Each structure stands twice: as structure tokens, then as C-alpha cells.
Amino acid sequence: MQKYITVMQAAKKLNVALETIYNMCRDGRLGGRYSKGNGKKKGKWLIEEESIELFLKYTSFKSIYQLQENKNQGRLF
Question: What is the pTM of this model?
Fold first, then answer.
């Protein structure tokens, strides 16, 4: 059975803003489900915990300085 977490919990786990989580859900980087609201109530996203774990496993955030350092390690001069 799949476990779901809220957008707020996902944002804290990934250390990003709420809007980033919404964008990641919309473009498919995170899996989850959207439940529509009724009347004045808005809908909400629920994020699969497995998709968070896979995102962390296969994604790395590197600064331009880290990338530059790795590129220069093979050079002698």
C-alpha cells in the first residue's frame, strides 16, 4: 500500500519551497495524486513517499563550484 504525505511535509523533506513541490507534481518529477475540492474548498496534492525517496536517490544538487572543481581535477596545468 502506498503512503502519502502532504505538500508541506514533502517541502520540509526536500528543503524546498511549497511552490517548488507543486511545480514538481505538475510536471511529473514527483508522483502523487490530486483530490479536487468541492464548492469553496480547494483541492490538494498528496505526494507518494516512494517518489520522494527515488527523487533523493537519483537526483543530486551541485553548485557551479562543485562542478567546476570536478572538471579541473583531471588537469595538470
Answer: 0.70
Cell of 50: 516512494
Distances in Å between the Cα of 6 and the Cα atoms of 21, 53, 59, 63 are: 10, 15, 21, 28
20 neighbors 7 (Cβ within 8 angstroms): no
pLDDT at res. 72 = 66
Distance of CA 45 to the CA centre of its chain: 13
Sign of CA dihedral 47, 34, 29, 60: negative
At residue 45, what are phi and psi to the nearest 5 degrees? -95, 140
Query: Cα angle at 59 between 18 and 67, to 5 degrees?
Result: 110
Cα separation of 14 and 60, whole Å?
11
